[in-house]
Amino acid sequence: MKIVVATHNKHKVDEIREFFKDDFEVLSADDIGSYDEIEETGDTIEENALLKARSLANLTDFIVIADDTGLFVDYLDGKPGVYSARFAGSNATYEDNNRKLLRLLEGVPIEKRKATFRTVVALIYKGKETIIEGKVEGTILDSPRGQFGFGYDPVFFVDKVGKTLAELTLEEKNEVSHRANALKKLKEYLKNNLEDFK
Question: Which residues lie in coiled coils (predicted)?
Fold first, then answer.
């Protein structure tokens, strides 16, 4: 069974492909042909995931999934939230976003740096839309650690494992991350509803 991920982000596709390698063939939007990622204009990560999934679902008969992720920092009243990818501006790099986040939290004690990473996956198949969410709780460190991952991974410390997401191998990350939690639920959903996807 084939699943197409509505993204050109190689890191994201690799994580998802690794996660589903024993059960499903995962294709990227690049494998489908001419798919242009749409602007994320939603007010929530749920809306953005659905926008992306709908735009690709029009181009293929395969199962389509799209996700959106937000980092919600308690001290910053939930920011960067839906704007996580463009927190430091529309052309910001991962490093730019991390620098802005750390600058805003400068001098804030570690116990007040609690955050939640949330990933929402939208699935569309034959017109039916499903939303699945995963999350992980953690703390924003005052400087980056680790060489793996991407995005906010180097500054997001997962309390229950005692490491940042960037200090975890892909296999370790796929045990605890927000995206992994969403993908576990998605995999369970697909297996439990397999007849709907034939």
Answer: none
**CB-CB contact of 6 with 65 (8 Å):** yes
Only one residue has tokens 């494998």, namely 31
Distance between CA atoms of residues 195 and 46, nearest Å: 26
The answer to the question of whether 11 is labelled as a binding residue is yes
Helix, strand, coil % over all residues of the chain, rounded to 5 = 40, 25, 35
Catalytic residue among 68, 77, 96, 142: 68
| pTM beyond cutoff 0.85 | yes
> Is cis: bond before 80, omega within 30 of 0?
yes
Q: Which two tokens stand for residue 124?
A: 């569309």
- Is 22 one of the catalytic residues? no
Q: Is 24 annotated as a binding residue?
A: no
Asked whether the predicted pLDDT for residue 8 surpasses 90, the reply is: no
List the Cα angle 160/165/188 in 5-degree steps: 75
The topology under which CATH files domain 2-197 is: Maf protein (3.90.950)
- Range with the poorest average pLDDT among 7-11, 30-34, 78-82, 193-197: 193-197
